[in-house]
Description:
Layout: E1 10-11, E2 40-43, E3 47-50, E4 55-59, H1 68-80, E5 87-91, H2 113-140, E6 148-150, E7 153-156, E8 159-162, H3 163-171, H4 199-204, E9 219-225, E10 232-234, H5 237-241, E11 246-251, E12 255-260, H6 263-273, E13 276-277, E14 293-298, H7 301-305, E15 311-317, E16 329-335, E17 338-344, H8 348-359, E18 366-371, H9 385-396, E19 400-403, H10 406-411, E20 419-427, E21 433-442, E22 459-466, H11 481-498, H12 503-508, H13 515-528, E23 539-546, E24 549-559, E25 565-575, H14 582-601, E26 607-608, E27 611-612, E28 630-635, H15 653-665, E29 671-672
Parallel strand pairs: 4-5, 9-19, 15-29, 17-18, 21-22, 25-28
Antiparallel strand pairs: 1-5, 2-3, 3-4, 6-7, 7-8, 9-12, 10-13, 11-12, 14-22, 15-20, 16-17, 16-19, 20-21, 23-24, 24-25, 26-27
Amino acid sequence: MKPIDRRTMLIGGGAGIGLVVAFSLWPRELGSALSAGKDEKVFGHYLKIATDGQVTVAVPQAETGQGIWTGLAQLVADELGADWENVAVVPAPDAPVYRNAMLDGRVTAGATSIRAFEGPLRQAGATARDLLVRAAAKKWGVAAAECTVRNGFVSHEDRRAAIGELAAAAAGLSARDDVEVRAWGAGGLVGQPLPRLDLPAKSDGSLRFAGDVRLPNMVLAAVRVAPPGGELKAFSRSAAERQPGAQQVIAAKGWLAAIGETWWAAEKALQAGQPHFSGHGRGARPDEAADFETIFDQGDFDKAVGSARALGAAYRIAPSQHLGLEPMAATARLANGRLEVWAPVQDYDAAHRAAADAAGLKPSAVTLYPMPVGDGGGAAMQADVIPIAVELAKRTGKPVQLTLSANGSQNHDRPRSPLLARMAGLPSPNGAVQAWSARLAVAGNAKIENAVPSYAIPSIRVGRSNTELPFETAYMRGGLEALAGFATESFVDEMARALNADPFVFRMGMLGGSVRLAKCLTAVTAIGGWDGGGKGSTMGVAASSAFGSHIALLVQAGVGPDQKIQVERMVAAVDCGRIVNPNLVRQQVEGSLLHALDLATTPAPEFIAGMPVARPLGGLGLRRLSPVPKVEIELIGSRETAGGVSGLGHLVCAAAVANALASGTGRRLRKLPFDLMAA
């Protein structure tokens, strides 16, 4: 494969366009702004316009399959008044201005991309549009207020000029700091189902991922890594080096790597070397005796309950692996006191620091090229292989591409935290809920947006314990909100059934203050043909709010002849505020639902020495392209602030399935993943 052309951009538009993605030639120093290429003019931190009319948007967020390269570019193009067929994207350079303010870093996670960058990107487009209009007005001797910009042209009555023609003159003007953005969608692009910029390249295979990087004189490496806290104890160097194609074996305290003519040769060398590592073996469940800190307290739960006996239930969610197809990989090149790294990264800052520390260089001497991410579940938040790739580049003196095997990637995956939720609730005389208590034992300190239910309950107490576990956990699509959503919506359903109430009506009676969520619930039951969810029904519902958005889900599910859960239909209603691209929203909600369904029905991993045991993906029952449930997405129009959607389906999927099974079988499943054979 030819070396990557770092100047190639991803371009939207008609047929034959958008074939390759790589990188712009990034500035070398930390804190640098965009640099102009030939015939380009820079407009602030996010935008470049070429004399031929091409508009290039610098996108600070990783493309994980969520379509964010398209969504963010669409915001800029609409505000600017660009022609979509002439819009391209490049990864933003390394500068503090590109930090995600919602996550305090250059991080792509938590359904924050649109929410964090809508304002800055619209402002960038508005400022550039103002400069272009002023340049045209000066050229024509007319008032700037009388000019308009649309479809790549500035117009005034019968005059018009392409924005590329005006770019040089516009860039020479001073930007005003009081430019206001236009009305939402005034540019004719926002709110439209525009084609994804990355789709052509993904369809024809020309989109390059981390494993596709090729550099002159690059060598290929495989590695075995010690369990957390472990060390390399023994291996056979001679057996490894005797393998055909093996070039070099490199040992370190916590790993053993092999360099080969091919990656497979390196991998076979490691197999022959039979490395042995120290490790430890401990359990993998939250501590039920942990101390709980009250994180929300409304009313007086103890007084409300008094001597009455509250309903109670406990929900357990096992740790979940990412199980993506893309293995962990990174390429490193050290030359002339500078380091370059190519890797799929969602936490850019952490990956950049890890690379600099491994090389012993200042961050300003390190260039990190964030590759498109092949695993949309969140695994790219981990940058563990980057330091090893850098060390191998130091020792070999050559560019090194390091790739973990599929098994190794599973072994060193950091799964989503498990959860233990103990719920208690007291029905009120009017058939609603008078008091609610939730105690959530979960790993980590991340905020859980939906830990407090959306319902109007007089007395609510929520406690949380940040549980220590014998293995490391990490972010997964849907966040900890997915865990809380399962416990909350399952327990609400249980309370409704204990009162012989329709689960939909029961919820609606408590959603007076959550109008947007109530609209979602009403819409989904109407579209789905809700039958009341009584005994013998195959329907279940769930609703939740998080990420600035709201979702309700109706599921039809049952148990098949093979005694496995069969989900036939999913109907979701979503209010995510202003919508940049309805196709992207539908794709993300559908993908989130199917991913969450896989997590709910895939057996939990076993752990040895603090690591998940690798399993063949083909035998786990992961969903294939066919068959999948019929999925219907209803988008509820809203002018509210745009919310996030990438993890929205995770909030409600498992609970809706459990509620449907409770209707049809009379059996309540309180553990994830579901196990119909468990007692």
